[in-house]
Automatic annotation (TrEMBL):
InterPro entries attached to this UniProt entry: Homeodomain-like_sf, Integrase_cat-core, RNaseH-like_sf, RNaseH_sf, Tc1-like_DDE_dom, Transpos_IS630-like
Domain Integrase catalytic: 208-370
Biological process terms in GO annotation: DNA integration
Name of the protein this chain belongs to: Integrase catalytic region
Gene Ontology molecular function, alphabetical: nucleic acid binding
A Pfam entry, by short name: DDE_3
Keyword field: Plasmid
Organism: Sulfobacillus acidophilus (strain ATCC 700253 / DSM 10332 / NAL)
Upper lineage: Bacteria, Bacillati, Bacillota, Clostridia, Eubacteriales
Top-rank lineage group of the source organism: Bacteria
Sequence segments annotated as region (Disordered): 187-222
NCBIfam families assigned to the protein according to its UniProt record, in alphabetical order: transpos_IS630
Length: 371
């Protein structure tokens, strides 16, 4: 609108003046509407507003009325520039790995995906995406609930007999008391496994005790540590009593497992069958293990969990407790000290053993239609 063009006078009714006066003094109305009401009541110099802003506001008031001049006119909005085909292409790329497209990273970041779009959109036949920015990528991924920079884990079933083996294990967990089998032979039930590679960490400087007088309320430890090696814990738990049997050795081979079995054998009189839940580690079925079992016929009964189903073995509950209560933050001077402290921990638990109970039964499996 030309500055030299004279606008016709704006006439206000008494009702309009009352409305504008109230709005101009309002403390709760939108700020832009208050300012425009003031502009329509006073001259631009008094409000120190740009003349063009006053002219536009007055022009809207002349054309639409003073009340409509207070509001923003509807805008058509900027048309979407990225075509539906290009958007689908972006989503499909987000569902692929960058390394499969010749890039080094394993997963996308939003900035990397946007950069790839800009570099390859034209060649891929989607020129509308050649100027895409990270913010657009972020909104598009959010629309489809995609998070290509994140990783979650799942467990692949690799055992075709998974369900049958699971039910067999659950049947063992049910009669956890001292019972007799179908042949009248007394049976005890154990859960056993190995925890290998337990690190023996040591300190390079003494730990500092809390000192309330100085405001130091925690233990302090030097950030450096030294490694003394690793040990493996072979352990079993009596499902009826909660008693734990442990054996610590530098490695976990068939030789160590065969050493663990006689220790378990010595706990019970002849004639008692020892049923053990085990995973599918090769040491449990090795030639050395079978040779030992041949020397004690009808003494041990191995029940194997399905492959990749260590969560079905109750000894894992003990291992988790061991890690949380003892191994987390432990510092020792040698692997022998680490072994002694783990065995001392087991002795401490055995002073008041807690029987473990597995609440998921074969009947629950059938009801859930797992098998």
């Amino acid at each position: 609108m030309s500055a030299s063009r004279r606008l016709p006078p704006l006439s206000l009714t008494n009702e309009d003046r009352t409305y504008l006066t109230q709005l101009a003094r309002s403390r709760s109305a939108r700020h832009t509407e208050v300012i425009r009401a003031q502009m329509l009541q006073a001259i631009a110099d008094r409000l120190q507003m740009a003349r063009n802003a006053v002219r536009r506001c007055v022009g809207k008031a002349l054309a639409l009325g003073p009340r409509q001049a207070l509001k923003d006119l509807p805008r058509p909005g900027r048309p979407r520039q990225i075509t539906p085909e290009a958007r689908a292409w972006i989503v499909s790329l987000a569902c692929q790995k960058p390394k499969d497209l010749g890039l080094a990273p394993e997963f996308w970041s939003e900035s990397l995906l946007a950069q790839y779009m800009r570099e390859h959109a034209v060649a891929a036949g989607h020129p509308s995406a050649q100027w895409v920015q990270q913010g657009t990528i972020s909104k598009l991924l959010a629309e489809h609930e995609l998070h290509p920079h994140r990783m979650t884990y799942y467990l692949q079933r690799r055992d075709p007999e998974f369900d049958a083996k699971m039910v067999q294990v659950l049947h063992v967990y049910q009669p956890v008391e001292f019972t007799f089998d179908d042949h009248g032979q007394p049976t005890v039930r154990w859960s056993s496994d190995e925890k290998p590679g337990i690190q023996a960490f040591g300190t390079t400087a003494p730990d500092r005790a809390p000192q309330p007088a100085t405001g130091q309320g925690t233990w302090q430890r030097d950030h450096e540590s030294v490694r003394h090696g690793t040990v493996s814990l072979l352990a079993g738990i009596d499902l009826a009593t909660g008693e734990i049997l442990g054996l610590v050795r530098p490695r976990h081979r068939s030789a160590e497992f065969v050493e663990f079995l006689p220790a378990l054998d010595q706990k019970y009189p002849t004639g008692v069958k020892i049923q053990i839940i085990l995973d599918n580690h090769s040491a449990h079925t090795s030639r050395e293990t079978r040779a030992y079992l041949a020397t004690v016929p009808n003494r041990f009964d191995f029940v194997f969990t399905p492959k990749h189903a260590s969560w079905l073995n109750l000894i894992e509950v003990f291992f988790a407790k061991l890690s949380k209560q003892l191994l987390k933050g432990i510092r020792v001077n040698s692997t022998d000290e680490l072994a002694d402290r783990m065995l001392a921990y087991i002795d401490w638990l055995n002073q008041d053993p807690v029987p473990f109970r597995w609440r998921w039964t074969p009947k629950d499996v059938e009801d859930a239609h797992v098998i």
